[in-house]
Each structure stands twice: as structure tokens, then as C-alpha cells.
Amino acid sequence: MDTRYTHIARRRVRGAVRPVAIAIVAIVASLAAAAWLLIIRPYQQQMQLDTGGVPAVSAAKTPAEAAPANVQAMDVNQLLTEASKALKDQRLLAPAGNNAFEFYLRVLAKQPDNPVATSALRETFPYAASDAEQAVNSRDFNEAQREIDLLAKADPANYTLTILRSKLDAQRKLASQQQQQAQDQQKAAQLAAQKAATEKQEAAKQAEQQQAQLAAGQAKAKQQRAEQQQQAAAPEKTQAAPAAVAAAESSDAVLLKGASPNYPTAALRAGQSGWVVVSFTVTPEGRTSDVRVVDAQPRHVFDRAAMEAVNRYRFKPAMRGGTAVASTKQQKIEFSTGR
């Protein structure tokens, strides 16, 4: 057999096989690309959402555009055009009334079997779910609820909705707890401030009382020193004067009007007797002040009654050099049921 014809036959076979191989490779590549776009990528995005991740978005959202004024009157083609614009601007779920999902849902309301709207909703669902999750994480609860409800209209059986609703509930509870904690902390701070203010007022009041007591003590001591100096500086002629004149110029306080103490009811019923020694000051006006109990038997039974009685006493004040001065006296008051 001539080898020349053999080579020609082989070249013809190779030429026929080469286009077939190229066609097979092209078909396999097309199937792989379709599988990636329609199955693998949406699945990966869905897994990212389920594990708390956020699917990658090709571009940032553009500022919201005004919604078309005649959406209700649009036909299917017009709605698909608006949906395409929304997809291009990454307006999947927002703003309300001007997003891809709402336009596609309106298309399905007019044509329930429209393949473009059905395919678009299915393929963009994972990305739209990511947008809804971002609304949840940013605690825009009203917007997140609206977007989840919109997703539910597109695919009510998708288990991603359960995850999104759980996350929304968890964020709402967390926000409520944080708000309550902030309110509790604010209330505690207010109470602490009120307590500090009250304590400051009490401290100021006590300091004022102590200052007043100190001033009174100093005034009393000054008065006593003045009396002593006055007595020491009395003229010699006053010392040599007759006893009657000296007695007239200097004398002790004299009781003008006494008062019977009220017998305590409890002691009277018990048949209890006792006595109280009371110290007090007779003022230049003849009244009593600084009444206090020096001793008593029994203690704290007749003290109040004795002090009240002494407060009602009236005296002729003590005289020093013809001038009424304050003086200190003591008196024993007895309480007996046999009186």
C-alpha cells in the first residue's frame, strides 16, 4: 500500500477530531461557569451569612434616588427596567418603594411565571440577606424588619429568614438591656448626687451649730471676765460704805415666783418618789435659762418635770454695783407621792 495515501488519511482524521475536541472543551467551560454563578457562589454567600459573615459586595451603595411616581401604572417591561437600574445601583432592598426586590415582586404580581424576575430574586437573595443583616447589626430595627419582610415575600421558605429574625430579636433584647442599664446607672448617679448634696448640707449645718455654740461660750466667758474686772475695780468708797448701801448695790438673785412641777404620770401610778438637783442661770431680766440636771435619783424619771418647773420660775436678778447681772443657781426639787 502506498504510504503517501496513509499519511493523507491520517491528516484527514486529525482534522476532523480537532473541532470536536474544541467544542467539548467549550461546553465543559460553559457548564463550569454556569455552575459557579448559579450554584457555588450563592451557596458560599449563604454559608457566610449563616456563620455571621457578610457577603462581599462589588460596589458601595449609591445615594437613594426618588421612587418613580407612576409605579402602579408601569407594565412588566418598565418594571424590569427599573429593577435593572436598582440592581446596578445596589439598591436590592432599600430605599422603600425604589429597590430591585419590590420591582421584581411587582413583575411577579403581574406575571407570576416571569423567568427574569424569578431568576433575579433567587440569585440576589443572598446579597439582599446580607443587606438586611447589616441593618440588624446597625440596630436600625424598623428598616431591618421591613427588609426581612420583603425577603419573606420573595422566598418565604428560605431558612436564612429564621437566622435573620433570630439575630434581630437578639439585637433588640440587647439594645433594651443596654438602655435599661444606662437608665439604672443614671438613676444611681442621681441618687449618689442627692446623697452627697444632703451630706454636704448636714455637714454645713453641724458646722454652723458648732460655730454658734462656740460664739455663745466666748460671749459668756467675756461677760464673766467683765463682771470680775468690774468687781475688782470697785471704788474704795464703795467698800467703805455702810453695809446697807453695799447690800443694796450687790445682792444675789431672789425667787419671786415659783412653780410646782407636774408629777410624771408613770411615776405617780407606780408610787415612785425621788429628787432632782437642777442648775440654771438667772438672766438680768429675772428669767431662767441654761436649765440642766446636775444629779437625780432615780435618773431620767423626774428630770423633765423638774426642768419645766424651773423654766417657769421668776426672780429678782442679782445686782452688782447697782446693775442687774446674770447669776447661776442650783435647786433641789423633791417628788413624793405623800405630798
How would you describe what is shown here?
The chain has 339 residues and is of the alpha+beta class. Among the domains are: 104 residues, no CATH class; 90 residues, 2-Layer Sandwich (TolA/TonB C-terminal domain). The chain is built from 10 helices and 7 strands. The strands form 3 sheets. It has a 3-stranded antiparallel beta sheet with strand order 3-2-7, with helices on one face. The chain has a two-stranded antiparallel ribbon with strand order 1-4. A hairpin with a 5-residue loop joins strand 2 and strand 3. Helix 3 runs antiparallel to helix 4, helix 4 runs antiparallel to helix 5 and helix 5 runs antiparallel to helix 6. It is rod-shaped, with a radius of gyration of 54 Å. 17% of the residues are buried. About 5% of the residues have low confidence.
Quick structural overview:
This protein has 339 residues and is an alpha+beta fold.
